[in-house]
Each structure stands twice: as C-alpha cells, then as structure tokens.
Amino acid sequence: MKVGIIGATGYGGLELIRFLHNHPEVEKIDLFTSSDEGTVFSSRFGHLLTIHDEPLKKIGVNTLSNFDVIFTSTPSGVTSKLLPPLVGVGPKLIDLSGDYRLKNPHDYEKWYKKDSAPTELLKDSVYGLTEWNEEEVKKASLIANPGCYPTAVLLSILPFIKEKLIDPSYLIIDAKSGISGAGNKPSQATHFSEANENFSIYKINEHQHIPEIEQAIDLFAGVKTTISFNTHLVPMTRGILATTYAPIFEGVTEEQLIDCLLDTYKNNPFVRIVTDVNSIGTNRVKGSNFCDILVKLDKRTNRVTIIGVIDNLVKGAAGQAIQNMNVQFGLPQTDGLDVVPLFI
Ligand SMILES: NC(=O)C1=CN([C@@H]2O[C@H](COP(=O)(O)OP(=O)(O)OC[C@H]3O[C@@H](n4cnc5c(N)ncnc54)[C@H](OP(=O)(O)O)[C@@H]3O)[C@@H](O)[C@H]2O)C=CC1
Ligand SMILES: CC(=O)N[C@@H](CCC(=O)OP(=O)(O)O)C(=O)O
C-alpha cells in the first residue's frame, strides 16, 4: 500500500510514521508539508535517521490522488477545505482533526468557531470509533477519526448506557490529559515553566469534545443526553485518564457491570478490562493502542466510577487511525499496532 501523511511534522503525524513503518502491508510512506517543502525529514527529526531520509513534499491534489490512503493530521479548519476535491477520486481519507466529526455544521461552527466542512461531506463521513462502528468503517471513503478525550470516554461508558445499567441523564466526566494533546505549536499554557508543577483546568464547560461525545452516545446507544465534561492539563507528555461518575439503575451489581464490559469487548484486541484498582494508569498504555477500562460501584451512593485510559497520541489519534485503515482494507486490526506499552 502507498500511504501519504499530511501534517507529518506534527505529533500525530510522527506517531503515524512510527507505526506505519512497521506495518506489513505498507510499502511506501510519503510525507507532506504546508511549510517546509524539500527539507529532508530525518534532518529535522533525528530519531528517524536512516528510517525516513526523504524530503518533505508539497501538498497538491494531483499528486495525492495516486495514494491508496491519505492521513490528514492537521489543525482544525484545514481539512474542511483541503479534502473536498479528494473525496471519491481514489484514496481512502482518514482525518485526525475534528473537521468531519460533527454532523451538524452549526455545532462545528459553535464549538470550533470556524467555518464547517461542506454539509454533504459531513453526512457521508464515518465516525471512526472502531470498536463501535466497524461495519461502517469498512465501507467508508472518508473517516472522521475520533478526538482523544471522546475515545477514552466513549469506550468506557457506551457499554453501560447501551445495556441500560447506568442513568445517562446525569453523566459527570472529569478528564485529564498530558501536554502533547495540545500539539507541537508552543503556547503560554504549554510552556514548560508554566505547565510543569502545575495541574490546571481549561475550557471549563466549553470543550469542543462535548458535542462529539453527546452525538456519539446518541449514535451508538440511541440516547439523547447532555453531559458535564471538563478537561485538565497534567504536567506529563502523554496519556489521558477520564473518570465518569453516573447513577446506576436500581439493583445493578458490580459483577453485572464488569460482565457487560467483558462481553462488549470480547473480540476487540485493543480494549482491556482491568479489575485490579492498582493497575490502571497512563503508564500502562503509554506508546500503545490499548484502552484500559476499570469500573467500580460505590454502593454507599449508588453511583458508579468508570475510568478509561489511553495514550492520546496512539489510541486517541494515530493508532486508532491505523486501526481504521486496517478495517477499511480488510486487514487484521492489529497490523502495525502490535506493540507492548512503554510503562517506564
Ligand atoms: N495531539 C493529540 O493528542 C491529538 C490531536 N488530534 C487532532 O489531530 C490534529 C493534529 O494534531 P497534532 O499532531 O497534535 O497537531 P500538531 O500541531 O502537532 O501538528 C499539526 C501539523 O499540521 C501541519 N499544518 C499546519 N497548518 C497546516 C495547513 N494549513 N495545511 C496543511 N498542514 C498544516 C503542520 O505541519 P507543516 O507545517 O509541516 O505543514 C503541523 O506540524 C489536530 O486537529 C488535533 O486536534 C486528535 C487527537 C489527539
Ligand atoms: C491537552 C490539550 O490541549 N488537548 C486538546 C486536544 C484536542 C484535540 O485533539 O481536539 P480536536 O481533534 O477536536 O481538534 C484540547 O483539549 O483541545
């Protein structure tokens, strides 16, 4: 397979290269840039010396139409304009940005504060939460890869909503992310001297992933609800830990909750159900495509605590994107992604 990556110099792009390099079906990877044409990739990213020594290429619709698949890992507002001429001309398109995730263009404009992609393409794009949308992903020509927080949240709560074990009217979701979630562009909030030794909340009640999570709960569990969702920045490089608190429906036991997870994900290689409370954390999934999930019932309050953990750059971005590519091309989901987490 011939693969193109737009946004290769960003964090998501670098992770795509890392995994695609080990993919058994990928013969050629071309890297594209909007700002650094001609620069030999390994001269800028020394860890890829001898691995990718080719120059970065200019983005051009004619060149791009010859690929089997194109990943776009660009800031929001780029692919809404870049991808329309490429839809249906050949390559499968997998977009890591938020531009094709929200079906209602007004939602995108409201939460991202940018112009939305064309409405007809929003209709045709497939939301690539692989474990929940495999049949649609197989047929998709344009995949909207889920956001990092929504991946951790949805994989951990959807089984309970679908099976009517928790009350979806009162979901409180408290999520924390490492700094690489903000991408490679320096900012005040991610400046080392201000982010280090600091644990902060941001975008209070206004995070752009709120409508994405609500839309997916409706799509996959058939429930319309509103959520309380907040995000925090943790002084570490990678990882997301999302904690959801929800009331259980009367009589639901912890055993039922665990069985529901085991049953839902029994054929999914990247979702692990953790039962030891001391064995869940971002270092258990670091560098890998795993999503670890733990559920604990608080009998005193009749509320449940649900924890989802991922590496934001892997299961939350590049890893899930490659998992979707594998499904689109009829390959084993684990192709190129079968790695052990870094842990330390
Ligand atoms: N970081 C994360 O954990 C996650 C990120 N995402 C989403 O994925 C996308 C990429 O994220 P991330 O890799 O972190 O972002 P980065 O900021 O690290 O990288 C984005 C890359 O996009 C390229 N780019 C910038 N402007 C343009 C443009 N106008 N046209 C084409 N390319 C452009 C740049 O490369 P160049 O200058 O060489 O063109 C840049 O290196 C974003 O939409 C992000 O929200 C999704 C899930 C998780
Ligand atoms: C730590 C951090 O800043 N994380 C980013 C992740 C967002 C992201 O990847 O968003 P889209 O793909 O939806 O654009 C944020 O909270 O905005």
Automatic annotation (TrEMBL):
One of its GO terms (molecular function) is NAD binding. One of its GO terms (cellular component) is cytoplasm. It catalyses: N-acetyl-L-glutamate 5-semialdehyde + phosphate + NADP(+) = N-acetyl-L-glutamyl 5-phosphate + NADPH + H(+). The keyword Cytoplasm applies. Pathway: Amino-acid biosynthesis; L-arginine biosynthesis; N(2)-acetyl-L-ornithine from L-glutamate: step 3/4. This is N-acetyl-gamma-glutamyl-phosphate reductase. SMART domains: Semialdhyde_dh. Residues 2-140 form the Semialdehyde dehydrogenase NAD-binding domain. It comes from the Bacteria. CDD domains: AGPR_1_C, AGPR_1_N.
